[in-house]
Fold these 4 entries.
Entry 1:
Amino acid sequence: MARKILWASLFVLPPVSLLAHYAFGVGRVADFLLAALALLPLAWVIGEATEHAAEHTGPGIGGFLNASFGNAPELIIALIAVADGLRPVVRGTITGSVVSNLLLVLGIALVVGPGDPGARRIDRRSLLVQLALVLGAVAAFLFTSVAALHGVRERHTLAVGSIPVAIVLLAVYVGVTVHGLRRHRRLYAESGHVAEPGWTLASSLAVLGVATLVTALVSELLVHSLDAFAHTVGLSTFFTATVIVAIVGNAAEHGGAVVIASRGKYRLPSEIAVSSAAQVALLVTPLVVLLSFPIGKPLGLVFRPVELVTMAGGAILVALVVRDERVRRWEGFMLLAAYGGCVVAYWLAGDLPG
């Protein structure tokens, strides 16, 4: 029954949200709420397609596919915000994406997943490499952020100075990812796993592509209505971007990981959560910085202390959780509690101009 409801909502909610905006011109708050609802069934179908694709590729490559398709809307959201001059929204969404993937997604997956704790095995090596990438990215962000502590945050020199940092992050990400995908392919081939009957790999990728495209269209409505929603409900724009937009914008990874974990599979959800965080930090963020120049709104890699601390702290905490190659339900509750602390910190931080 639940699957039927999700399939039905998939063909109803996204078209309704788009029609409500373009055909009927409903208010900004209604746009935000409808877009948020529309992203939920899209997240579910992306999770379904990813699980079927992983049957043909293995959990490591499956997690990478989910992160890549799921973060495409994230990149679009960030670029739209850059074009609109919403620099704090861009940074807030990036921070919220990294932290929510590490703490919220993985935490919920560990809590809802069934099975004997002894059987909850994950790929420790793969996850620790990606967590190290996140920490390396935060260190790079710190380098450029410190330069802005005693001056104007949006000096053109800061944006220009962020270009070599962005290029290095991209190069590191590509190199490590190519090596990691080769390892995952080799391990999957050696495992002798036979794909279960279901969607073909081509069908899974086609569904992922279409769902990602629709998600991007709906996400655009979300960004353009963010300010109005935040003002109406009395929240800071920073909090709305860091918590609400980050969660909704990453609904594909969030929903997909949780759906798969509920079926007793842990390697794929853990890969989805951690690889998505690493991809946001080392691929999405540098691309946004580089593409902000042709857009005409140069963006510097300048983050607030609360953002740097929560991103680094989340990566370190997850590293402690996965260090023994097993994950447990109580560790999921610990990650969720840590995410709750981050949410409070973002609420207390409030807005900071540009």
Entry 2:
Amino acid sequence: MRLAKYLAHAGIASRRAAEQLIADGRVTVDSEQVTDPARDVDAHNDVRFDGRPVRAEAHAVYALNKPAGVVSTAHDTHGRPTVVDLVPEAGTRLYPVGRLDADTTGLILLTNDGELANHLMHPRYEVPKTYRAKVARPPVGERALRALREGVDLDDGRTAPASVRAVRADVLELTIHEGRKRQVRRMCDAVGHPVLALRRVRFGPLALGDLPVGAHRKLTAAEVERLRAASPSPRGRSGR
């Protein structure tokens, strides 16, 4: 296995970040400083990062139904509960794949696979995410729906077209490929229907299903492979 990939599998950093760490001379293999990220290593090599032994961990991916009030980070300086706290038996360092606002609920993924996390979140791969939004001032008219589908102007630029349908007079289902901060809330604000409650129900090919609020489950190997297949290569245009 290439050294950069080995570090990524160990949860040190994403593969790209690991390449920089290696180039900076912070990694040794069998007591020798190595600056080539393509150097082949395996479990028999003594790989160290900043002098600390590195062991590639078995990859794990969990789906969590995030409750409101829980933050989407591995650690919180304010002492608030985190999504990682809700998977105490993982036995490995987990990191959330992207973020949900503290007041947004629903599906979030946690993993120690930096490469998979990068593919799922990088804008150029355009992995879709689907949300259910309960909105104010119903019903949502055709003009607002058309604006969301065509893209709306926000303070950080125009959004890419979204897939939108009205589930009820006061509930919209929106699928977006971008990952801007509070994007769905800002989009709905822009068309005159502020969000009252927001829940993510799908991430790429993975649906939230009937997973209870606050509960989690480890994904099967088949589910992980479907996630990998959701972003096999760039689609030729970068996300906005």
Entry 3:
Amino acid sequence: MTGSSIAVRGLRKSYGKTEVLKGVDLDVQRGEVFALLGSNGSGKTTTIKVLVTLLRPDGGTARVGGFDVLESPDKVRQCISLTGQFTAVDEILTGRENLRMIARLRHLDDARGVAEGLLDRFGLAEAADRRAGTYSGGMKRRLDLAMSLAGTPAVVFLDEPTAGLDPEGRLEVWKMVKELAVGGTTVFLTTQYLDEAEALADRIAILHGGRIIADAALAELKKRFPPARVEYVEKQPTLEEIYLHLTRNAAGTKGTTR
């Protein structure tokens, strides 16, 4: 990772008399998975909207991909993609048609080839000719992510990408995020799930009271707490592990077991 992909200084934003961002400072390095955590209403989505040029800040500066979000919004948009809290696929079109459409909107030379490559990459080739409205939640999210990557953007913004997904769908998205990071894409992630940030992020920032109150790698954040007390206990499986084990085994078992 070399150089900043996102640089934010003194970012401020208010809605009427409510000051949401009160001087946010952030740096995200190229090829990094960066997680922004905060409670509902803390300003996570507002921060993303400013960075993707959908919202004008009241003060401060923000640069994405080397471009100022106010002075060069078109250049910022050319180097980013955004996947929001809700999937933005056309449910009337098939998966293949959705991808070809977005490739054409991005003015890519080989829209057909781009679509086929993304269908293979995201495991959607078998469902490519089905209407997106028939897809499961996890498949729709995969299609949404695939559409975001048409044109290989340098920075991908994921605003609570696993909200509302079942455990298997969440794991599918996690896999995709890890693959993006391996490929050198910068990922800016917001999430309500602390285990998600722990599993995916190279660095974590906490937004609280309109300001960043912590910004470090997970290992560094852990050092800020008293040493853990060592206890020897039997590790019990989590509900998520039990759910995935039972559902995966059931797929290969006929009949009902009591």
Entry 4:
Amino acid sequence: MKFDEIKEIAVLGAGLMGHGIAQVCASAGYDVRLYDIDNAILENALSRIKKNLNKLVEKGKISRDDADKVIGRIHPTTDLKEAVKEADIVIEAIPEDINLKKKVFSEIDEIAKPDAVFATNTSSLSITELASATKREDRFIGMHWFNPPPVMRLIEIIRGERTSDETVELMKKLVKKLGKEYVVVDDVPGFIVNRILVPMINEAIRVVESGIASPEDVDKAMELGANLPMGPLRLADFVGLDTLLRVLETFREELGDYYKPSPLLKKLVRAGKTGVKSGEGFYKYQR
């Protein structure tokens, strides 16, 4: 597929990441099919997109007409076939579960256009293994977005073992068209950002767990002492403590016990305190 032939993008998953990805793609002029299994999730996603766009209008960054056009390009659906059948690019943003992702990719491989490119938004899983669930391993690539997608400037492009050079170049052009920057990474656990960031967050949790300092003081120390824009524990709440735990468990399995998750992290996740999305993690939030 040539870059200028890309007209429609399917985004699978309308949750925390998916609705933001859909907003970015629609803002770049693409028609977007936003898929999820539940109409309530889709309605919430559209509401959040509208809220985000309204803020941009209020700040004078876009016009009301432009905001309306973005919304008009997003087509929600609970029909997976409807979502992907005409898509030129499929961006998967479902939960970080390798078996679930492989199941979805195997299913859509039979539905999507033969030349459509599949991209997975994963923070730790093997691109090569996910691609093996399809018959288009050369047109399968990792596309790791950061939260929130409309704000964060970086996308990690991850090359699987059989990802073609043409697919990598296509994705580079797409990322630029979306107004983002990219880095290209080999298929290794955690890629660049999470390979460095996740162990740091885990160590910050251990500091709290051991009674050395409070979450507030840990974050204050790292913001003022290391010039981080957000402390590691508040960032963990925004990422999702359940997501963080899954990433660490993947790291431990692939790379060894150095990446063993903090018991406090496990305790919070088991209690349903997963961060911003649940209303409580290391801090409390209004939902």
